[in-house]
Amino acid sequence: MKRINSVVLACLLGLTAAVQAAEVRDVRFWRAPDHSRVVFDLSGPVTHELITLSNPHRLVIDIQNTKLAADTQKLQFANSPVTGLRHADKPGGALRIVFDLSADVQVRSFLLAASGDLHDRLVVDFLDKGESVEAQVIKSVETSSQRDVVIAIDAGHGGEDPGAIGPGRVKEKDVVFQIASRLKERFERKKGYRVVMIRNGDYYVGLAKRRDLARKAQADFFVSIHADAFTNPQANGSSVYALSKRGATSASARILAQRENDADLVGGVSLSDKDQVLAGVLTDLSMTASLDASLSVGAQLLGEMSKISRLHSKRVEQAGFAVLKSPDIPSLLVETGFISNPGEASKLKSSSYQSNMALAIFEGIDRYFRESPPPDTYFAALKRGDTPGGRPATAGVREYTIARGDTLSGIALRYNVPLSDLQRHNQLSGSSIRVGQKIQIPAS
Q1: Where is the LysM domain (predicted)?
Q2: 33 with 134: CB under 8 angstroms?
Q3: Whole-model pTM above 0.90?
Q4: What are 174-184's pLDDT values in tens digits?
Q5: DSSP single-letter state for residue 280
Q6: What sign for the dihedral angle of Cα 179, 133, 219, 282?
Q7: Residue range 393-441, CATH number
Q8: Could you give the dihedral angle defined by the CA atoms of residues 328, 329, 333 and 336, in that order, rounded to the nearest 10 degrees?
Q9: Which residues, listed in sequence order, are joined to residue 334 by a DSSP beta bridge?
């Protein structure tokens, strides 16, 4: 008899939990270049229905068995088609949310299940019609014998996804956007570059879309800027990461890649938005060339970053970062310091460190493109002496500055020059080289 009573009690408790209303605990709004996003933070999973109405334009959302526990009075929907939000309780326990709209817009919605520290969320996107701001910014590269080198700068995280949060509630998404903006200014000061910012404000861009935007811009290089975090607040130092053809080069690289790849779950990307990265893409010949270039730029970056920051790793680490999986664009992810470290968090939010880090990243990338410019660019013409101020290289010989992580055999392989020719041309008896040393690369 006791057994039967316990089973009945368990069933009653389960039924009570099932009928208990969920709560909307918070409502947030984000404006992106091509859409407006509203996020409902929920106490549990829900079901919902969308209804679009015209004359006047409205979007109605009925969320079943839900109560509103958030204050929506202070929400502002600037520069968006949303002009207001109203709500009411419906018979049967449903919550009705009404968005008043200034125009007819395409709408999509999806639910994100609770994961880790994140609650269940309902995401509603109002998609702009016509040409987006991103489409206006990103233009095709003009075919020219002296075109600009296109640099795609990606400030990590954004919008719903703050990234790592350090002491004093300093957010990764804010500091890396500042560094990215200062890096953009550096490139814009120098003739021969054009910059594409993957995000221009505080909104989230899916990892696949970040790569797509760089490809649409026909970028010559993609750099994604981040700030690291670890459970031990003493962890410190900056680092550079490239994509790996195989496994991660270290346990920390593997963990970091997994954390960065989970950003879509935080930032709010529906499963239908996730692309399936083809396994074969890593065997593509263009990927091999892109990885070689990525590692070369990464070595240059480490040399520059070591001048202003302790390096967490003195080599370019590699792992399966989703944001770097573009087969034809050299790409790097730069961790500018540990935001979980109180000392480095203080530096990361300072304008002087942000400027110095932006300069270090710029110098590393700029040195690479000055030494190995794409053949149809201004820098290639400058190197050939085809443009004012340019000096022709001597008999096809190019100069190279040794960066941290370089080896003589690696440089020979990169430039397709026999190691013995490289040693003989530079009068080197062995393979010893030092950071900052200048050597000449003979014509292959």
Answers
A1: 398-441
A2: yes
A3: no
A4: 999 999 999 99
A5: G
A6: positive
A7: 3.10.350.10
A8: 170
A9: 225, 240
What token pair was written down for 375?
A: 């053949």
The correct CATH number of 133-371 out of 3.40.50.970, 1.20.1290.10, 3.90.850.10, 3.40.630.40 is 3.40.630.40
Residue-wise DSSP of 34-100: SEEEEEEEESS---EEEEEETTTTEEEEEETTEEE-S--TT---TTSSEEEEEEEEPTTS-EEEEEE
Pick the CATH number of 21-127 from 3.40.50.720, 1.10.10.60, 2.60.40.3500, 1.10.10.10: 2.60.40.3500
CA distances from 123 to 80, 110, 237, 315 (A): 16, 5, 36, 40
Q: Which two tokens stand for residue 269?
A: 């990307």
pLDDT digits (tens, 9 = 90+) for 23-41: 999 999 999 999 999 999 9
How long a stretch of residues is the chain? 444
